[in-house]
Amino acid sequence: MHQGAGGQSKKSIPMKVNGNEIRPGNVIQHKGGLWVAVKTQAVKPGKGGAFNQVELKNLIEGTKLNERFRASETVERIRLEQKDYQFLYAEGEMMVFMDLETYEQIELHKEFIGERAVFLQDGMNVMVESYEGKHIGVSLPDQVVLEITEAEPVVKGQTAASSNKPAILENGLRVMVPPFVSAGEKIVVDTNEMTYLRRAD
Fold first, then answer.
1. Is this prediction's pTM over 0.85?
2. What's the pLDDT at 161?
3. Which among 139, 159, 178, 180 is placed 20 to 30 Å from 55, CA to CA?
4. Alpha-carbon dihedral 67, 70, 74, 79, rounded to 10 degrees
């Protein structure tokens, strides 16, 4: 193996991943541009192979694109510079984060984080990804614990235990929860799918 000289530069290195491995926050090379995955959804149709429905946002132009990636396809994922930050507070539409190494603070627009911004909690550690010095994306923990502030009481004699009911969480998010969960309880929520996972311990 030939060792390249001066491997100290923080260049972003592309790596190949399968289409079904793309996750929200990943940056990929696609159609000659750089795109960040905003939303991903695994789709398993009755006929044909499963695919990943991915909503992409162009890093340079900000345009959006919906693409289907099959598991058998490979895409170039760009490894970005990753740094640990802590979420401090929101100021209007701006979210303030602190670099855990340098204590330097940065402000990112709420839109930049997308709908998952509702999960940000004071003191939460996140990963901020940058490309050539420009902040690109924020990776949140996959799961957060939230308290239910409102949930419909279960109607006596309701037989279908499988029928979920709507609940409002402390951050204002509305999710469907099982009938046995009530207001005041804490639940674990998936931040990628924005769905109920289980009761918190």
1. no
2. 57
3. 178
4. 50
